[in-house]
Amino acid sequence: MRHTLHFRSLLSGLLLSALCSASFIVESAAQDRPCAIAIHGGADSNPSSDPEVLARKKAVLTEALHAGHQILTTGGSSLDAVVAAIRVMEDSPLFNAGKGAVLTNEGTAELDSSIMDGQTLNAGAVASVKHVKNPIALARLVLEKSPHVLLIGDGAEAFGKEQKVEMVENEYFITEKQRAAWKAIRDRKMKDGEKSKQVNRDQLVKQFPNANFGTVGAVALDQDGNLAAGTSTGGLMYKAWGRVGDSPIIGAGTYADNETCAVSATGTGEYFIRGAIAYDITAMMRYKGSSVIEAANSRIYEKLTHMGGTGGVIAMDRAGVIVMPHNTKAMNYGWIDPAGQIEVGQYPAKK
Ligand code: ASP
Predict the structure, then answer these.
(1) Number of structural domains, the chain?
(2) What is the Å distance from ligand 1's center to 236 Cα?
(3) Higher pLDDT pick, 1 / 342
Protein backbone atom coordinates (compact mmCIF):
# COMPACT_ATOMS: atom_id res chain seq x y z
CA MET A 1 0.00 0.00 0.00
CA ARG A 2 1.26 3.44 -0.79
CA HIS A 3 -0.03 6.74 0.47
CA THR A 4 1.09 9.98 -1.09
CA LEU A 5 0.01 13.36 0.13
CA HIS A 6 0.72 16.25 -2.15
CA PHE A 7 0.16 19.84 -1.13
CA ARG A 8 0.10 22.05 -4.18
CA SER A 9 0.57 25.74 -4.15
CA LEU A 10 0.01 26.84 -7.68
CA LEU A 11 1.39 30.30 -7.41
CA SER A 12 3.41 30.05 -10.57
CA GLY A 13 1.30 32.17 -12.90
CA LEU A 14 0.31 35.75 -12.30
CA LEU A 15 -3.26 34.80 -12.97
CA LEU A 16 -3.20 32.35 -10.13
CA SER A 17 -1.19 34.37 -7.72
CA ALA A 18 -4.24 35.81 -5.99
CA LEU A 19 -5.75 32.43 -5.43
CA CYS A 20 -5.02 30.05 -2.67
CA SER A 21 -4.97 26.89 -4.73
CA ALA A 22 -4.52 23.51 -3.31
CA SER A 23 -5.17 19.87 -3.91
CA PHE A 24 -5.16 16.92 -1.64
CA ILE A 25 -4.32 13.60 -3.16
CA VAL A 26 -4.39 10.11 -1.77
CA GLU A 27 -3.08 7.22 -3.78
CA SER A 28 -3.61 3.70 -2.61
CA ALA A 29 -2.55 0.62 -4.50
CA ALA A 30 -5.44 -1.60 -5.43
CA GLN A 31 -6.17 -4.51 -3.11
CA ASP A 32 -8.42 -7.45 -3.75
CA ARG A 33 -11.90 -6.05 -4.18
CA PRO A 34 -11.05 -2.62 -2.83
CA CYS A 35 -13.74 -0.11 -1.93
CA ALA A 36 -13.45 3.57 -1.13
CA ILE A 37 -15.52 6.67 -0.59
CA ALA A 38 -14.77 10.40 -0.68
CA ILE A 39 -17.09 13.27 0.18
CA HIS A 40 -17.09 17.05 0.12
CA GLY A 41 -19.06 19.60 2.08
CA GLY A 42 -18.48 22.45 -0.33
CA ALA A 43 -15.69 24.58 -1.71
CA ASP A 44 -15.61 27.46 0.70
CA SER A 45 -14.42 30.94 -0.22
CA ASN A 46 -14.94 32.16 3.29
CA PRO A 47 -14.17 29.31 5.66
CA SER A 48 -15.02 29.61 9.32
CA SER A 49 -12.10 29.36 11.69
CA ASP A 50 -14.37 28.80 14.69
CA PRO A 51 -13.12 25.51 16.19
CA GLU A 52 -16.61 24.61 17.33
CA VAL A 53 -18.06 24.97 13.80
CA LEU A 54 -15.16 22.99 12.39
CA ALA A 55 -15.63 20.24 14.95
CA ARG A 56 -19.36 20.02 14.25
CA LYS A 57 -18.79 19.84 10.50
CA LYS A 58 -16.11 17.22 10.99
CA ALA A 59 -18.49 15.10 13.06
CA VAL A 60 -21.15 15.19 10.31
CA LEU A 61 -18.62 14.44 7.57
CA THR A 62 -17.34 11.50 9.62
CA GLU A 63 -20.86 10.17 10.09
CA ALA A 64 -21.53 10.54 6.36
CA LEU A 65 -18.35 8.66 5.48
CA HIS A 66 -19.17 5.79 7.81
CA ALA A 67 -22.75 5.58 6.51
CA GLY A 68 -21.43 5.14 2.96
CA HIS A 69 -18.45 2.98 3.84
CA GLN A 70 -20.47 0.49 5.84
CA ILE A 71 -22.54 -0.19 2.73
CA LEU A 72 -19.40 -0.69 0.64
CA THR A 73 -17.66 -3.05 3.07
CA THR A 74 -20.74 -5.25 3.31
CA GLY A 75 -20.86 -5.68 -0.47
CA GLY A 76 -23.36 -2.89 -1.21
CA SER A 77 -23.30 -0.73 -4.32
CA SER A 78 -21.47 2.54 -4.84
CA LEU A 79 -24.85 4.11 -5.72
CA ASP A 80 -26.25 3.13 -2.31
CA ALA A 81 -23.12 4.39 -0.59
CA VAL A 82 -23.32 7.77 -2.34
CA VAL A 83 -26.98 8.18 -1.38
CA ALA A 84 -26.35 7.17 2.25
CA ALA A 85 -23.45 9.60 2.66
CA ILE A 86 -25.25 12.50 1.03
CA ARG A 87 -28.42 11.93 3.07
CA VAL A 88 -26.47 12.44 6.28
CA MET A 89 -25.15 15.80 5.01
CA GLU A 90 -28.58 16.83 3.66
CA ASP A 91 -30.07 16.17 7.11
CA SER A 92 -27.46 18.34 8.81
CA PRO A 93 -28.17 22.10 9.07
CA LEU A 94 -24.45 22.82 8.64
CA PHE A 95 -24.34 22.34 4.86
CA ASN A 96 -25.99 23.99 1.89
CA ALA A 97 -28.12 20.96 1.01
CA GLY A 98 -31.43 19.73 2.38
CA LYS A 99 -31.91 21.27 5.85
CA GLY A 100 -29.74 24.39 6.08
CA ALA A 101 -29.86 25.17 2.36
CA VAL A 102 -29.33 28.75 1.21
CA LEU A 103 -32.44 30.76 0.29
CA THR A 104 -33.72 32.23 -2.93
CA ASN A 105 -34.40 35.97 -3.28
CA GLU A 106 -37.95 35.13 -2.17
CA GLY A 107 -36.70 33.54 1.04
CA THR A 108 -37.53 29.95 0.11
CA ALA A 109 -35.34 26.87 -0.29
CA GLU A 110 -35.08 25.34 -3.79
CA LEU A 111 -32.97 22.24 -3.98
CA ASP A 112 -31.00 20.54 -6.76
CA SER A 113 -29.40 17.09 -6.82
CA SER A 114 -28.06 14.41 -9.14
CA ILE A 115 -26.54 10.96 -9.14
CA MET A 116 -24.77 8.86 -11.78
CA ASP A 117 -23.92 5.18 -12.09
CA GLY A 118 -20.48 4.61 -13.62
CA GLN A 119 -21.28 1.07 -14.73
CA THR A 120 -24.31 1.85 -16.90
CA LEU A 121 -23.95 5.63 -17.38
CA ASN A 122 -27.51 5.87 -16.07
CA ALA A 123 -28.23 9.10 -14.25
CA GLY A 124 -31.03 10.82 -12.37
CA ALA A 125 -31.42 14.44 -11.31
CA VAL A 126 -33.93 16.87 -9.83
CA ALA A 127 -33.92 20.66 -9.79
CA SER A 128 -35.84 23.35 -7.92
CA VAL A 129 -37.66 21.01 -5.58
CA LYS A 130 -39.12 22.65 -2.48
CA HIS A 131 -40.63 19.89 -0.38
CA VAL A 132 -38.53 16.78 -0.90
CA LYS A 133 -36.66 16.06 2.34
CA ASN A 134 -33.78 14.25 0.64
CA PRO A 135 -33.33 15.36 -2.97
CA ILE A 136 -30.54 12.79 -3.51
CA ALA A 137 -33.04 10.00 -2.78
CA LEU A 138 -35.40 11.44 -5.42
CA ALA A 139 -32.56 11.77 -7.93
CA ARG A 140 -31.82 8.09 -7.35
CA LEU A 141 -35.47 7.23 -8.05
CA VAL A 142 -35.38 9.26 -11.28
CA LEU A 143 -32.38 7.14 -12.26
CA GLU A 144 -34.04 3.85 -11.38
CA LYS A 145 -37.75 4.32 -11.87
CA SER A 146 -38.16 6.80 -14.69
CA PRO A 147 -37.05 6.84 -18.33
CA HIS A 148 -35.77 10.40 -17.82
CA VAL A 149 -32.64 12.02 -16.49
CA LEU A 150 -33.77 15.41 -15.12
CA LEU A 151 -37.10 16.35 -13.55
CA ILE A 152 -37.81 19.84 -12.24
CA GLY A 153 -40.07 21.71 -9.81
CA ASP A 154 -43.67 20.60 -9.33
CA GLY A 155 -43.30 17.74 -11.82
CA ALA A 156 -40.35 16.32 -9.92
CA GLU A 157 -42.35 16.57 -6.71
CA ALA A 158 -45.36 14.83 -8.27
CA PHE A 159 -43.03 12.00 -9.31
CA GLY A 160 -41.61 11.99 -5.76
CA LYS A 161 -45.10 11.66 -4.27
CA GLU A 162 -45.83 8.73 -6.58
CA GLN A 163 -42.61 7.14 -5.41
CA LYS A 164 -43.55 7.88 -1.79
CA VAL A 165 -40.46 9.89 -0.91
CA GLU A 166 -40.65 11.87 2.32
CA MET A 167 -42.11 15.34 1.76
CA VAL A 168 -41.76 18.26 4.18
CA GLU A 169 -42.87 21.89 4.44
CA ASN A 170 -40.41 24.33 2.90
CA GLU A 171 -39.90 25.77 6.40
CA TYR A 172 -38.18 22.52 7.39
CA PHE A 173 -35.15 23.49 5.29
CA ILE A 174 -34.83 27.04 6.61
CA THR A 175 -32.43 27.61 9.49
CA GLU A 176 -32.04 30.78 11.52
CA LYS A 177 -28.54 31.22 10.19
CA GLN A 178 -29.66 31.12 6.55
CA ARG A 179 -32.63 33.38 7.28
CA ALA A 180 -30.26 35.94 8.84
CA ALA A 181 -27.85 35.73 5.89
CA TRP A 182 -30.77 36.15 3.47
CA LYS A 183 -32.07 39.16 5.42
CA ALA A 184 -28.68 40.85 5.36
CA ILE A 185 -28.55 40.53 1.57
CA ARG A 186 -32.14 41.67 1.14
CA ASP A 187 -31.62 44.70 3.38
CA ARG A 188 -28.51 45.67 1.46
CA LYS A 189 -30.32 45.26 -1.87
CA MET A 190 -33.27 47.32 -0.64
CA LYS A 191 -30.90 50.04 0.51
CA ASP A 192 -29.25 50.04 -2.90
CA GLY A 193 -32.70 50.31 -4.52
CA GLU A 194 -32.53 46.68 -5.67
CA LYS A 195 -31.15 47.65 -9.06
CA SER A 196 -30.74 44.05 -9.97
CA LYS A 197 -32.13 40.77 -8.75
CA GLN A 198 -28.92 39.05 -9.72
CA VAL A 199 -26.25 37.91 -7.33
CA ASN A 200 -22.71 36.91 -8.03
CA ARG A 201 -21.15 34.24 -5.82
CA ASP A 202 -17.79 36.00 -5.69
CA GLN A 203 -19.37 39.35 -4.77
CA LEU A 204 -21.43 37.63 -2.10
CA VAL A 205 -18.27 36.39 -0.47
CA LYS A 206 -16.87 39.91 -0.30
CA GLN A 207 -20.05 41.72 0.73
CA PHE A 208 -21.56 39.13 3.01
CA PRO A 209 -18.88 37.21 4.84
CA ASN A 210 -21.53 35.16 6.61
CA ALA A 211 -23.19 33.95 3.40
CA ASN A 212 -23.04 30.21 3.67
CA PHE A 213 -21.57 27.74 1.22
CA GLY A 214 -21.49 24.01 1.61
CA THR A 215 -22.87 22.05 -1.32
CA VAL A 216 -22.33 18.36 -0.62
CA GLY A 217 -21.17 15.49 -2.79
CA ALA A 218 -19.85 11.96 -2.73
CA VAL A 219 -17.97 9.58 -5.00
CA ALA A 220 -17.57 5.88 -4.28
CA LEU A 221 -16.03 2.67 -5.59
CA ASP A 222 -17.70 -0.58 -4.60
CA GLN A 223 -16.29 -4.09 -4.34
CA ASP A 224 -17.62 -4.94 -7.78
CA GLY A 225 -15.45 -2.18 -9.24
CA ASN A 226 -18.35 0.17 -9.93
CA LEU A 227 -18.01 3.91 -9.49
CA ALA A 228 -20.83 6.34 -8.65
CA ALA A 229 -21.05 10.08 -8.01
CA GLY A 230 -23.71 12.32 -6.50
CA THR A 231 -24.16 15.98 -5.57
CA SER A 232 -26.81 17.92 -3.62
CA THR A 233 -27.23 21.65 -3.02
CA GLY A 234 -29.48 24.58 -2.26
CA GLY A 235 -27.57 26.37 -5.03
CA LEU A 236 -26.56 29.98 -4.88
CA MET A 237 -27.67 32.28 -2.05
CA TYR A 238 -30.38 34.77 -3.14
CA LYS A 239 -30.78 33.11 -6.53
CA ALA A 240 -33.67 34.41 -8.65
CA TRP A 241 -35.88 33.38 -11.58
CA GLY A 242 -35.61 29.62 -11.00
CA ARG A 243 -31.85 29.69 -11.37
CA VAL A 244 -30.33 26.21 -11.52
CA GLY A 245 -26.62 25.55 -11.14
CA ASP A 246 -24.34 22.70 -12.08
CA SER A 247 -25.22 20.26 -9.30
CA PRO A 248 -28.17 18.60 -11.11
CA ILE A 249 -26.52 18.85 -14.52
CA ILE A 250 -24.88 15.60 -15.56
CA GLY A 251 -21.47 16.37 -17.02
CA ALA A 252 -21.20 19.70 -15.19
CA GLY A 253 -21.52 19.02 -11.46
CA THR A 254 -21.67 15.23 -11.46
CA TYR A 255 -20.30 12.45 -13.68
CA ALA A 256 -19.29 8.81 -13.28
CA ASP A 257 -17.85 6.31 -15.74
CA ASN A 258 -16.25 3.04 -14.66
CA GLU A 259 -13.69 3.42 -17.44
CA THR A 260 -12.41 6.71 -16.09
CA CYS A 261 -13.56 8.18 -12.78
CA ALA A 262 -16.39 9.57 -10.65
CA VAL A 263 -16.64 13.33 -10.05
CA SER A 264 -18.71 15.63 -7.82
CA ALA A 265 -18.23 19.38 -8.09
CA THR A 266 -18.85 22.47 -5.98
CA GLY A 267 -18.44 26.14 -6.78
CA THR A 268 -19.90 28.73 -9.11
CA GLY A 269 -22.25 26.51 -11.07
CA GLU A 270 -22.42 28.62 -14.22
CA TYR A 271 -18.71 28.01 -14.90
CA PHE A 272 -19.01 24.29 -14.29
CA ILE A 273 -21.91 24.13 -16.76
CA ARG A 274 -20.15 26.18 -19.44
CA GLY A 275 -16.93 24.23 -18.99
CA ALA A 276 -18.65 20.80 -18.69
CA ILE A 277 -16.06 20.37 -15.96
CA ALA A 278 -17.06 16.98 -14.52
CA TYR A 279 -17.30 15.36 -17.96
CA ASP A 280 -14.15 17.10 -19.15
CA ILE A 281 -12.16 15.40 -16.36
CA THR A 282 -13.34 12.00 -17.55
CA ALA A 283 -12.72 12.99 -21.19
CA MET A 284 -9.10 13.88 -20.45
CA MET A 285 -8.63 10.45 -18.94
CA ARG A 286 -10.37 8.67 -21.80
CA TYR A 287 -8.99 10.51 -24.81
CA LYS A 288 -5.66 11.80 -23.53
CA GLY A 289 -4.78 8.96 -21.19
CA SER A 290 -4.37 11.35 -18.24
CA SER A 291 -4.45 10.05 -14.69
CA VAL A 292 -7.32 11.17 -12.47
CA ILE A 293 -4.87 13.44 -10.66
CA GLU A 294 -3.65 15.14 -13.83
CA ALA A 295 -7.15 15.46 -15.27
CA ALA A 296 -8.85 16.89 -12.19
CA ASN A 297 -5.99 19.28 -11.39
CA SER A 298 -5.87 20.48 -14.99
CA ARG A 299 -9.62 21.15 -15.25
CA ILE A 300 -9.74 23.07 -11.94
CA TYR A 301 -6.41 24.90 -11.92
CA GLU A 302 -6.24 25.53 -15.65
CA LYS A 303 -9.68 25.47 -17.26
CA LEU A 304 -11.97 26.63 -14.43
CA THR A 305 -9.47 29.13 -13.08
CA HIS A 306 -8.73 30.60 -16.50
CA MET A 307 -12.46 30.91 -17.15
CA GLY A 308 -12.68 32.97 -13.95
CA GLY A 309 -14.67 30.41 -11.98
CA THR A 310 -14.20 29.34 -8.40
CA GLY A 311 -14.75 25.93 -6.88
CA GLY A 312 -13.42 22.43 -6.81
CA VAL A 313 -14.14 18.76 -7.32
CA ILE A 314 -13.63 15.43 -5.67
CA ALA A 315 -12.70 12.70 -8.13
CA MET A 316 -11.95 8.99 -7.73
CA ASP A 317 -10.71 6.48 -10.28
CA ARG A 318 -11.38 2.74 -10.44
CA ALA A 319 -8.33 1.99 -8.25
CA GLY A 320 -9.67 4.24 -5.53
CA VAL A 321 -7.20 7.08 -6.17
CA ILE A 322 -8.76 10.26 -4.78
CA VAL A 323 -8.00 13.85 -5.74
CA MET A 324 -9.63 17.05 -4.47
CA PRO A 325 -8.39 20.15 -6.30
CA HIS A 326 -10.04 23.49 -5.47
CA ASN A 327 -9.13 27.10 -6.09
CA THR A 328 -11.16 28.41 -3.15
CA LYS A 329 -9.60 29.07 0.24
CA ALA A 330 -10.88 25.80 1.63
CA MET A 331 -12.91 22.70 0.94
CA ASN A 332 -14.62 20.52 3.52
CA TYR A 333 -13.61 16.98 2.72
CA GLY A 334 -13.41 13.41 3.92
CA TRP A 335 -12.46 10.02 2.59
CA ILE A 336 -12.00 6.40 3.53
CA ASP A 337 -9.44 4.98 1.12
CA PRO A 338 -9.07 1.39 -0.11
CA ALA A 339 -6.83 0.61 2.87
CA GLY A 340 -9.62 1.70 5.24
CA GLN A 341 -7.76 4.86 6.33
CA ILE A 342 -10.08 7.71 7.24
CA GLU A 343 -9.27 11.39 6.85
CA VAL A 344 -11.70 14.25 7.52
CA GLY A 345 -11.32 17.99 7.76
CA GLN A 346 -11.28 21.34 6.13
CA TYR A 347 -8.51 21.68 3.62
CA PRO A 348 -6.18 23.43 3.88
CA ALA A 349 -6.05 22.36 7.48
CA LYS A 350 -5.47 24.90 10.22
CA LYS A 351 -2.08 24.49 11.89
N1 ASP B 1 -22.37 24.57 -7.42
C2 ASP B 1 -23.49 25.08 -6.67
C3 ASP B 1 -24.38 25.87 -7.61
O4 ASP B 1 -23.87 26.63 -8.40
C5 ASP B 1 -23.13 25.96 -5.52
C6 ASP B 1 -21.94 25.56 -4.68
O7 ASP B 1 -21.33 24.53 -4.90
O8 ASP B 1 -21.62 26.32 -3.73
O9 ASP B 1 -25.58 25.77 -7.52
Answers:
(1) 1
(2) 6
(3) 342
